[in-house]
Specification:
The chain is of the alpha/beta class. 31% of the residues lie in helices and 19% in strands. It has 10 helices and 15 strands. It starts with a strand and ends with a helix. It binds threonylcarbamoyladenylate and magnesium ion.
Length: 326
């Protein structure tokens, strides 16, 4: 399949590009598009055949459910049962890197929700994504637009690398702002709200709005969020984690290792990316993995961020998964 690519003005998307992409989606095809977190690989969420192609293109296990992306709150009503917590969070935060797991209505094909009786919904904070969902007139199911297990794509080149010739179209909206995926919480039981995946929306902000702590899912709930089960986000070269103040991983004795983090280590790396704060670290992590892999470094050492607040929690999660620790 020849993949069409189109460069778009992210803040003021050209209508011709949006309507072409929407037509492909309505006809059951796949379109990769930018969101504020990472690029998504989109399909009509209500078309089980189209959704099947998403799993095939990514090589994703079919029990790992997709997030349905919406452009307005009315659309959510058709898809899931909205409780007071959902209402409050949607009104307060959306569009945002916040995905809500709610009780699904039957209109959502089982394939989209991995056979579960719940579904994950999110309104992305990106004008191109919102225009595309609106023009399509359906919710768009979209996992990150990478091959399963690889770092999520945060720019056009990364999507092209993984998806060229596998899907109908890629929209090039430049680099994303957040760089790691949305925070996923399960609000089906308002008494016990579960943090399924830390991400772009900080825990502290959610807990302040809800006036309660987010809880750790038990094993039963973890099974229901299979995306958190597999080793994930890893480049094709080994990833080692370094905590500042602790011994530097022995890999520096090998030739040609790369380093990424907030502080320059005493050991001199052959390739290095330094970030001035945790936000920029999160934004650049996945692109850094892909760059070092392409430049054929033997491995990459990443600094463990000391600060677990804000996006730090999500960043730590991605780093430990890339290092194979979860
Ligand atoms: O920022 C994001 O969330 C990006 C952009 C494209 O929106 N999307 C994304 O999708 O990261 P994906 O498929 O890579 O991750 C979706 C996560 C997985 O961990 C999956 O297991 C979980 O959401 N999930 C989806 N539906 C669920 C459900 N009904 N119950 C529990 N977890 C669910
Ligand atoms: Mg993903």
């Amino acid at each position: 399949m020849t993949t069409i690519t189109a460069k778009i003005n992210k803040w003021n998307p050209e209508p011709e590009i949006i309507s072409k992409a929407a037509e492909i989606l309505r006809n059951g095809g796949l379109v990769a598009f930018p969101t504020e977190t990472v690029y998504g690989l989109g399909a009509d969420a209500l078309n089980a055949e189209a959704v099947k192609k998403v799993y095939e293109a990514k090589g994703r296990p079919s029990d790992n459910p997709l997030i349905l992306h919406v452009a307005n709150i009315e659309q959510v009503n058709e898809l899931v049962f909205i409780n007071d917590t959902a209402e409050k969070l949607m009104k307060t935060f959306w569009p945002a890197p916040l995905t809500l797991v709610m009780k699904a209505k039957n209109i959502i094909p089982l394939r989209t929700r991995g056979g579960l009786d719940t579904a994950a919904i999110r309104m992305p904070d990106n004008p191109t994504a919102l225009a595309l969902i609106e023009a399509t007139g359906r919710p768009i199911a979209a996992p990150s637009a990478n091959l399963s297990g690889r770092p999520s794509p945060t720019d056009f080149e990364s999507v092209f690398n993984d998806m060229n010739n596998k899907i109908e179209m890629i929209i090039d909206g430049g680099s994303v702002e957040v760089g790691i995926e949305s925070t996923v919480i399960d609000i089906t039981n308002p008494e016990k709200i579960l943090m399924l995946r830390p991400g772009g929306m900080p825990r502290e902000i959610l807990e302040a709005a809800l006036q309660k702590k987010l809880e750790v899912p038990d094993d039963q709930s973890k099974k229901k969020s299979p995306g958190t089960r597999y080793k994930h986000y890893a480049p094709d070269i080994p990833v080692f984690i370094w905590k500042r103040g602790e011994k530097f991983p022995e890999v520096y004795k090998k030739n040609n290792f790369a380093f990424m983090g907030l502080h320059e280590p005493d050991i001199k790396a052959d390739g290095i990316i330094l970030f001035n704060d945790v936000k920029n670290y999160a934004r650049g992590l996945f692109a850094g993995f892909r760059k070092f892999e392409k430049e054929k470094f033997s491995c990459v050492v990443v600094e463990w961020p000391e600060d677990n607040s804000g996006i730090g929690e999500g960043l730590r999660d991605r780093i430990s998964r890339a290092g194979g620790k979860s």
